């Protein structure tokens, strides 16, 4: 599917309600599935990734009453062990599904096969497999570094001291944390060079909300006592602030104002809430009231130099704003994004260059210079965040057409319909 982006000659003035957070939805689904009792998760994100997660839990025997129209799912907890001791798990393109359920299956007696779409097969998982095998799980074939494979789980992992390289994905650490309450002995997790730390802290907070104690000894070291159990509860998912970022960016590049409803900045679990502070540095005004969170764009944007290690999902959004600033923008500490849905640093350079924008890149950084973009066809590289980011440029530049735009169904199936509400 090709998507032409509609240009505007006026400042955007809009109120938008974005869907629920994917990160929170998938954590809530897994924790509820591992809990004792029945939970209802409401305002969940309904997208390719979350639907795949729900279907995978069903394959493991978990009771899932999913109502897409109501954006809710009733989950019958299995108290740490999946009812089925044999299942085939199709991960599609969902990284959280692959990492989180791999750890959960390793902690549950049985044999579970995992496979995924080619795009996800190429993403890193070897560090997590190694950590799980040191904890008592077994994988076939041995020394495998990508899907497909079969994991043979045990009745709880061993626990003890566990070290893992967190430089490629914070999801490895979140996966280990969520199954640690069922380990045979207390677990201490040391995550070296941890990226996306706020998402790991989101995991810790949600674990505590379901009744499990996690001691955060510092930002990269965690202690989980055993034995513990998750207690079922009803849980409401907050709006996805990564998705909200594209709409805030629309206000930034058009000098308009966009309000996202409802958002509570102080109580948000999402690390990408930091994106609004970056917009503020570029000259935007930020307001929060009973209606929601508003961003008002300035007459002239300023470039910034920022470390985005902890909110890297939004770096492409910032990169799409950058050509319209009066000074260059440099984004650093994002090397791990080369191993996500696409090589995101190189793809942003490649696609911005098509539009006549000067861009430089390094192993873990990108620099975007001010310019006057021209229209052109954008290859999304089947990456939802690339497709959504270049929609921002299309507001100011005629002739922007995004190829394979249907990839947005991974996290926001209604993205382009919501985008049209800006006009």
What does this structure look like?
This protein folds into two domains: 3-19 and 239-420, Enolpyruvate transferase domain (UDP-n-acetylglucosamine1-carboxyvinyl-transferase, Chain, Alpha-beta prism); 22-221, UDP-n-acetylglucosamine1-carboxyvinyl-transferase, Chain (Alpha-beta prism). Strand 4 and strand 5 form a beta hairpin. Helix 1 (22-34) packs parallel to helix 3 (95-106) and helix 8 packs parallel to helix 10 (315-321). 30% of the residues lie in helices and 23% in strands. The strands form six sheets. It has a four-stranded mixed sheet, covered by helices on one side. A four-stranded mixed sheet has the order 4-5-3-14, covered by helices on one side. It has a four-stranded mixed sheet with strand order 6-7-9-8. It has 423 residues and is an alpha/beta fold.
Strand order of the largest sheet: 2-15-17-16
Oligomeric organization of the protein chains: single chain
What percentage of amino acids are in beta strands?
Answer: 15-25%
- How many H/I helices? 13
CATH architectural arrangement of the largest domain: Alpha-beta prism
CATH superfamily of the largest domain: Enolpyruvate transferase domain
Task: Compute the number of structural domains.
Answer: 2
- How many strand segments? 23
Mean pLDDT over the residues: 97
Major sheet: 4 strands, mixed
CATH class descriptor of the largest domain: Alpha Beta
Radius of gyration of CA atoms, rounded to a whole number: 21 Å
Supply the helix-strand structural class: alpha/beta
Could you name the CATH topology of the largest domain?
A: UDP-n-acetylglucosamine1-carboxyvinyl-transferase, Chain
Shape: globular
How many angstroms does the end-to-end distance come to? 22 Å
The percent of residues in helical segments reads 25-40%
Low-confidence parts lasting 5 or more residues at pLDDT below 50?
none
């Amino acid at each position: 599917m090709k998507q032409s982006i509609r240009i505007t000659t006026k400042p955007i003035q809009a109120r938008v309600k974005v869907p629920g957070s994917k990160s929170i939805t998938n954590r809530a689904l897994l924790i509820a599935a591992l809990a004792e009792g029945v939970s209802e998760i409401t305002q969940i994100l309904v997208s390719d990734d979350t639907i795949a997660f729900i279907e995978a839990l069903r394959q493991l025997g978990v009771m899932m009453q999913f109502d897409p129209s109501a954006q809710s799912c009733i989950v019958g907890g299995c108290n740490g062990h999946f009812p089925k001791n044999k299942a085939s798990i199709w991960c599609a393109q969902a990284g959280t599904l692959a990492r989180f359920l791999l750890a959960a299956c390793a902690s549950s007696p049985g044999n579970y096969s995992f496979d995924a779409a080619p795009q996800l097969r190429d993403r890193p998982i070897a560090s997590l497999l190694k950590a799980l095998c040191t904890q008592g799980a077994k994988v076939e074939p041995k020394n495998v570094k990508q899907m497909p494979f079969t994991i043979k789980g045990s009745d709880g992992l061993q626990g003890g001291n566990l070290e893992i390289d967190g430089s490629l994905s914070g999801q490895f650490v979140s996966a280990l944390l969520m199954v640690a309450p069922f380990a045979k002995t207390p677990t201490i997790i040391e995550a070296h060079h941890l990226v996306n730390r706020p998402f790991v802290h989101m995991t810790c907070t949600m674990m505590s909300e379901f009744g499990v104690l996690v001691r955060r000894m510092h930002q990269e070291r965690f202690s989980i006592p055993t034995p513990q159990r998750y207690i079922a509860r009803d849980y409401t998912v907050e709006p996805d602030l990564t998705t909200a970022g594209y709409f805030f960016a629309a206000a930034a590049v058009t000098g308009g104002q966009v309000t996202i409803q409802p958002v509570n900045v102080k109580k948000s679990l999402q690390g990408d809430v930091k994106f609004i502070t970056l917009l503020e540095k570029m000259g935007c005004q930020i307001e929060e009231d009973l209606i929601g969170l508003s961003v008002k764009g300035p007459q002239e944007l300023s470039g910034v130099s920022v470390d985005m290690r902890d909110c890297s999902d939004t770096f492409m959004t910032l990169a799409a704003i950058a050509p319209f600033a009066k000074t260059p923008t440099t984004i650093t500490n994002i090397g791990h994004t080369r191993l996500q849905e696409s090589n995101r640093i190189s793809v942003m350079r490649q696609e911005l260059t098509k539009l006549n924008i000067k861009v430089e890149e390094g192993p873990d950084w990108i620099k975007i210079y001010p310019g006057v973009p021209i229209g052109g066809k954008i290859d999304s590289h089947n990456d939802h965040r690339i497709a959504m980011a270049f929609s921002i440029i299309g507001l100011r530049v005629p002739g922007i057409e995004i190829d394979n735009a249907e990839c947005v169904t991974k996290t926001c199936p209604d993205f382009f319909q919501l985008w049209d509400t800006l006009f």
